[in-house]
Structure formats: C-alpha cells, structure tokens
Amino acid sequence: MSTGFFDGIEKLAYEGVDSTSDLAFRHYNPDEIVMGKRMEEHLRFAIAYWHSFAWEGGDPFGGQTLVRPWHPQDDMGRAKMKADVAFEMFDILNAPYFCWHDADIRPEQGNFADNLSTLNEITDYIGEKMQATGMKLLWGTANMFSHMRWMGGASTNPDPDVFAFAAATVKGCMDATHKLGGENYVLWGGREGYETLLNTDMGQELDHMGRFLSMVVDYKHKIGFKGQILVEPKPQEPSKHQYDYDAATCIGFLRKYGLENEVKLNLEQGHAILAGHSFEHEIAVAASEGMLGSIDMNRNDYQSGWDTDQFPNNVPEVALTYYHIIQAGGLGAGGTNFDAKIRRQSIDPIDLIASHAGGMDVCARGFKAAAAMVEDGGLQKALDDRYAGWKTPEAEAMLNSDLASISERVLSDGINPAPRSGRQEILENYVNRFV
Q1: CA 368, 374, 376, 377: dihedral to nearest 10 degrees?
Q2: Rounded CA gap, 81 and 112, in Å?
Q3: Residues with catalytic annotation?
Q4: Annotated binding-site residue? 309
Q5: Where is the active site (predicted)?
Q6: How confident is the model at residue 303, as a pLDDT?
Q7: Share of the chain above pLDDT 90, in %
Q8: 124 assigned to a ligand binding site
Q9: Is 207 known as a binding-site position?
Q10: 201 neighbors 208 (Cβ within 8 angstroms)
Q11: Domains of the chain, CATH where assigned
C-alpha cells in the first residue's frame, strides 16, 4: 500500500541520452552488458538511509528544513512509516541495496536495553519488506557519534562504561546485519580521535580501538557472518583529528594490530578530499594493499572546508575512480553507496528521486568511460612503457644487490641517465577522449 509520499512519481526507466525528463535514466541501464557483466552487478548501487530519510535538513548554522510525515523520529510507528517510504523510494529507483546506522532506523530510547529492543523490532519489520521486494542490505553500522554519550569517543573513550556501551551496541548491530543478510559491516569512528592532546592519551586510545576491532572480528567468526568487516577513513570533523585519517593511516593501523587480513576499507570521496587527496588516490592506495572493500560515492564543495556530502556530478573524477576499481578487480562484495544528501533547500519528494537518478547516471557514465579506457589499454600501455626498464635482468638483479655493487656498476658502465618525459598532458588528453 502506498504511503502517498511519492504520489505522482512513477518508477524510473532508462530512456537513453536524448531523454529530457527530470526523472529518467540517460546512462544507467542496469541490464547493459559492460565487460561481460550487467551494469547493475558492477556498480551495486545502495541508498543511504541516514541522508535520505533520517536527516532533517539541519546544518551547523540552522535547523530543520525537511518536514516529513515521520517527524519527529521518536516512536516506532513513525520508524515503520519511514521504512515504508524508504522501500517505496528503493522501488522507484530500482536500486538493489540500501545501508543503515541503527539510529537511522529506530528511535533513540536513552538506554541500551530499549535501543536493542526497538532495533530488533524494526529490523524484523524491514526484513519482511526485504523478503517481499528482493531488496538487499549492502551494510549495516552503528551510530556512535551523534548522542551525547559519544562526545569523547566510543572505543577510544576514557570512560570504560562508554567502551562497554559501544561494544554492546556494535554486537546488536552486527546481529541485526547478519539477520538481514547484510554483505558487509562498517565501522566509522566519527569521534574516535581527539579535540586536544592536553587531555588525550593517544597510545592508550589507539590500543583500545585496536582491541575493540579485534573483538568485532572475533564476533564475526563466532556468529558465522560471511560479510566483510570494513573501516571508513576520515581525517577530521567532528573531531579535530580522527585516528582513521586516510587509507594509508588505516592500513598502518590494521597492520599494527594484526587485522590486515580481516578488515578492508570503505572509502568515501568526500573524506578523501578532506584529507587532501583525490578519490582515485585513496582507491589506488587501498587496492595496492589488497584492502579495497567498498565505496561511498558523493562529492564535497571545493570552496568549503567541510563534508558537504553532495551527489556526484563530475564524470571525469568518477571515471578515474572506477578505472582504478576495475583495475583492482571490481568492488566484489562492496558497492557504490550514495552517502549523499539533497541540499537543505531541496525540500520536495521529487528532489530525493532526481538527486539519486542523477548520481546513478553520473556513475554509470563514468563507469562506462573507465571500462572503455581499460579495454583500449592506452593508460596501461603508457604505464608499462614508463616502467619497462625494470623488466631487464640488470634492473631486477639490482633489487637483490647492495649499494657497493650498484656503485661499482654505475662507475664501470658509465651510467649517466637523461631525464625522460612523464607525458602527463598527453595522458590527460587521452582520458578526455573517453569522458
């Protein structure tokens, strides 16, 4: 039965590049075969429950602008109404996956027992809707940053009772994710960091964070959860400095605590930008270590120094992102989650649908460009040519040699290398042929 929230909005269809409709796909055809597989299977789109349904339109300087029938989000009746609307939107967009935090789908009760009870109740309700529609859960996670109990962190909190509350919360969310057939479980340490070193024992906090994550991995195996455990890097905001700063920092952390074979990364474009990186850089770093798990697709405003979580609209950036993902073997059990929100002035239901449709189109267009570049092989050939010297016996032997032997060879052979062009502009022009 329709909730009436999206009245007048029909299920979106692929209409091709000549379509002038605000509510149609021009580039995303889920059944189009690209590189031997349906596009839906490559991209694995997911809708973020928090931005689409839980966010009320506030920003650091102003309050609610999105007035929805399920507001205020303070009882189970409204939580179920919110779920009804969510599944209507999933159907309109023909999206295969969704993602949630516990606080997105159940009302805050102020204590753990009631939070767990309402979480179990709403996930039973959502599970019935998933069974009826075929919708799947890409991942679940716990919100351990919004409520005031988390103001000093969760697993890194100086209060051991907060650590305990966090452990119990994650167990409940993992159980719920497992129950719903989730394909991943994500941990984002929104306040796992510090405001000032004046009151912070960084070594102890990192050790506690590492032990907490080890407990998560142990519990995954205990309950037979087959999905990936993912951590999500972010450098700052809300904390001055967060311990999961970027992909490289997270990889170092995982290796320090012996978790590199158990945990992968969920990478977000907006977080990459806040860390001073491009998204493709973060993808390439994770892929080089075999730790690419999943992605959150969005963008930041380059004129703002905070996480604006806008929908993607830059095809060249998205194409380079997917190029590195394809080169790494694809997203596997991960997916493309739209961790993106409409602007606080975009208050109508149609804005929710159009924003996602546009984001899905940008990703599809970028993915097809990336696939074409991979199949053409121009970038790979340029890379192979640039490093071809390392394929010679002399170069390979040098890596197993020592400084003195290498020095003797330089003297005896009169080695005096001339600079070689990196041909960056030629490669940029090459990319522009596809996007």
Answers
A1: 160
A2: 23
A3: 101, 104
A4: yes
A5: 101, 104
A6: 87
A7: 96
A8: no
A9: no
A10: no
A11: 33-376 (3.20.20.150), 381-432 (no CATH)
